[in-house]
């Protein structure tokens, strides 16, 4: 239940942020929040991360739906036996995938708005942040599991 609530909360935050941008800004409009470092810039992304596959919404949608279904099946099968960090990771990834898929279904594009000009030229949204947090948690879980396994092997060899 906790993971379902987290998923719903993250999707809601993503969608509310996008509704606010679409309702208050025009495409291409940018508002500086922190000098020339951080802006809110309304971009219509018809591709995937980093602007790849622009205009390939059918392919992107099929892959995304497959990923969403795969993650739901994985979580359903492993929720009770999976560890907490892994469950949170997949909850974040699922939330981001669903958030961006909702955009593709209802808008025909993904609304991006976070613009860190001081770091790179890509504009992204909260759903993208959720996916990256999820991936980072999976990497962290993998590193921790490897360390735990190494420690266990060390203790057995003593």
Automatic annotation (TrEMBL):
The chain crosses the membrane at residues 57-76, 88-106, 118-140. One of its GO terms (cellular component) is plasma membrane. The active site is at 112, 128. It catalyses: Release of signal peptides from bacterial membrane prolipoproteins. Hydrolyzes -Xaa-Yaa-Zaa-|-(S,diacylglyceryl)Cys-, in which Xaa is hydrophobic (preferably Leu), and Yaa (Ala or Ser) and Zaa (Gly or Ala) have small, neutral side chains. It is found in: Cell inner membrane. It comes from the Bacteria. The keyword Cell division does not apply. Its EC number is 3.4.23.36. Keywords: Aspartyl protease, Cell inner membrane, Cell membrane, Hydrolase, Lipoprotein, Membrane, Protease, Transmembrane, Transmembrane helix. This protein specifically catalyzes the removal of signal peptides from prolipoproteins. This is Lipoprotein signal peptidase.
């Amino acid at each position: 239940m906790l993971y379902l609530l987290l998923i719903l909360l993250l999707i809601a935050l993503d969608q509310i942020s996008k509704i606010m941008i679409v309702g208050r800004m025009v495409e291409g409009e940018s508002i500086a929040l922190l000098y020339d470092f951080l802006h809110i810039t309304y971009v219509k992304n018809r591709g995937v991360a980093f602007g790849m596959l622009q205009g390939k919404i059918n392919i992107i949608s099929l892959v995304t739906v497959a990923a969403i279904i795969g993650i739901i099946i994985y979580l359903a099968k492993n929720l009770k036996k999976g560890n907490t960090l892994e469950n949170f990771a997949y909850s974040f990834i699922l939330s981001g995938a669903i958030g961006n898929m909702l955009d593709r279904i209802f808008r025909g594009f993904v609304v991006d708005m976070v613009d860190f000009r001081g770091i790179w030229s890509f504009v992204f949204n909260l759903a993208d942040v959720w996916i990256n947090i999820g991936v980072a948690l999976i990497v962290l879980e993998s590193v921790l599991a490897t360390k735990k396994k190494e420690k266990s092997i060390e203790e057995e060899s003593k």
